[in-house]
Amino acid sequence: MIMVLGIGGTHLSGFQMSVINYTSPSLFLSQYIQKFINETWLERYGSVLQQETLTLLWSFIVSMYCVGGMIGCLCSGFLTAKYGKKKCLLFNDVVLIIATLNTGFSRRAKSFEMILIGRFLEGIGAGIHLNAHIQYAGEISPKRLRGFVNVSSSVFLALGKAVARILGLRYLCYSFSTCFLFICLLYGREVLFSQDLLGTEDMWNVLLSFSGLVALIQLVFLPFFPESPPYLLLQKGDKPGCLKGNIKR
């Protein structure tokens, strides 16, 4: 339970906060994306962007995550009270998968706007799951383990930052089988013959979209978890369901 909630909760926040600032020892992600924006603009309009405009677009890409996070936080209280923490987390996983599909296929679509959309949706997801994850984990966990479960959110936040840095390095992708399968899905068999995988100019979009795999894992396993007993009792008036959940614990 801790693992499923953690990797789809604060782990994703740590990953997204870290991955945008770090990819490889040689180049930062900002250089890759700014070059992609410039090339896309040149292909569309036949002119090169001024550095000020390029920097502004990059700033929008970075800040969209914070804007989305603010909206997600403001909406999380209403959503969790009306629909429950479990349903909010499941909905949030769908949002994150859509977001990572935008960032993952932005290079093929030659659209830097898809990165903006993806970052915005990832921010909304972060705002929701940062609140729903901690509340839900505490409400469904046994009393004797409640403190440990709540503290685990900080551990997964730090773990997400570490994973972003590890995946940004070269020659490490083969150690992560799920990541490698996702890369093959996006790029096909030519990936098998590539010496440089994540953390390179050709694979930065895959690095950005890696969190979609984690959201998919949570989307598969979370439906087997019980709904929050306090939500069933206070919001739905389902006393038998609440008692049943407490008995299981």
Characterization of the model:
The chain is mainly α. It has one domain (2-248): MFS general substrate transporter like domains (Growth Hormone, Chain: A, Up-down Bundle), CATH 1.20.1250. The protein is 74% helix and 0% strand. The protein is built from 13 helices and no strands. Helix 4 runs parallel beside helix 7, helix 5 packs antiparallel against helix 7 (113-140) and helix 7 runs antiparallel to helix 8 (146-167). The longest helix has 33 residues, at 51-83. The protein is elongated, with a radius of gyration of 20 Å.
State the fourth-level CATH superfamily. MFS general substrate transporter like domains
The helix-strand sequence is HHHHHHHHHHHHH
Mean pLDDT: 78
Please give the domain count: 1
Strand content: under 5%
Biggest sheet, in brief?
none
Count of distinct strands: 0
pLDDT < 50 runs, ≥5 residues:
171-178, 189-196
Please state the structural category: mainly alpha
- The CATH architecture designation is Up-down Bundle
Please identify the top-level CATH class: Mainly Alpha
Radius of gyration, in Å, reads 20 Å
List the total number of helices.
13
Cα(first) to Cα(last) distance is 12 Å
